[in-house]
Amino acid sequence: MAQLLAAIRLMCEQIDAQMSLVQDDACLASLRSARGNLAGAEARLANGRVSANDLAQISSSLLAAQTASSAASLQVSVPDSPQERLRNARRDAHQTIAELNDDLYKRKIFDRYLKFASDDDARAYRQREEENRRAIAAARTKGTPEGDLEAMALERQQMLDAGAHGADRSDEWQQRMKRFDEVGENLHAALRETGHDTKAADAIDRESTRAFLKAKGLSESEINQAMQRGHSTAEVIEPYLAKAAEAPAAALSPDKSSAGDKPASPQLKELADALRIAGVTPTGSAASEGHGVTLDATAIAASAQRV
Fold first, then answer.
1. Which of 19, 66, 164, 280 could pair with 295 as two cysteines, CB 3.0-4.6 Å apart?
2. Which residues, including other chains, have CB under 8 Å from residue 274's CB and lie 6 or more apart?
């Protein structure tokens, strides 16, 4: 639900910007109608209890808004303003978070690299993992630029925790961290440019980076020096990453639980298909030109089943 709500709020911001630029009366009326429907959809989602039928109607409203926005984009040339750069950075962040969230918490693609010193170490890791998952969902639900940046920082925190336990041996982990940092840096710069507060996310980044370096055996003075040498998290941690290697066939850790291989139920698949038909683009698919909103349809379906 958090992902769908965030997508609706981002689309509302995009339509608001277009309404101030569009001159054609018919196009403006279409945008206003779409904006009103999105407001109703947002209210229903915020209410907390949404049925499968409600989800289909909300998805249809989002699709109609995307269509209206795409038509408006053909009539106006949106200037390269700080606000536009912020919208683009947030759109990239939403997609990046959704993709990585799926890989970390559902597919658990780095679990086979994890190594724990003991069962207690494994349990503590899983507890932090669950706390991060909940915190990321809460940050995304805020629907604000600050919430997006906080979600990025929390997602990076989980990646660094996994890296400190062996996932940094994965070449994909290292590549994903670099890409994640690029998206995060763009979002951070866009927030600063438009006068938004980044202190909460900055604090999370400092704490998680220091924890990673400490796990790599650095002393406090060495950590302080390392933190001053790099501009981004990727630059700070790069000298201390393990050599990337192929993962072994079997898990290396005492903790062998993983939800990543569980098949989706027929009900969830049916609802996910319905959302796709309604116009919601599944994560990993190409976003429709002009709006860039992508959603994890299966995740939304699963959320609906829990309410």
1. 280
2. 52, 55, 56, 59
pLDDT digits (tens, 9 = 90+) for 178-187: 999 999 999 9
pLDDT at 294: 44
| Crossing angle between the packed helical segments 2-19 and 119-141, to the nearest 10 degrees | 30
pLDDT tens sequence across 140-169:
988 899 999 999 999 999 999 999 999 999
pLDDT of residue 197: 95
User: Is 101 within 8 Å of 155 (Cβ atoms)?
Assistant: yes
Q: Name the residue with tokens 């609706």.
A: 8
Contact between residue 4 and residue 295 where contact means Cβ atoms under 8 Å apart: yes
Phi and psi dihedrals of 121, rounded to 5? -65, -40
pLDDT at 252: 46
3-class DSSP state of 281: coil
Residues sharing a CB contact under 8 Å with residue 265, sequence separation 6 or more, in sequence order: none
CA 269 – CA 238 distance, rounded (Å)? 40
CA dist 56 and 52 (Å) reads: 6
Q: Rounded CA gap, 121 and 112, in Å?
A: 16
> Taking the CB of residue 158, how many other CB atoms lie within 10 A of it?
22
In angstroms, the CA 125 to CA 102 distance is 18
Return the exposure string of 270-292: e unless at least 16 CB atoms fall within 10 Å of the residue's CB, then b. ebbebbbebbbbbbeeeebeebb
Q: What CA–CA distances, in Å, run from 54 to 6, 49, 51, 165?
A: 17, 9, 5, 42
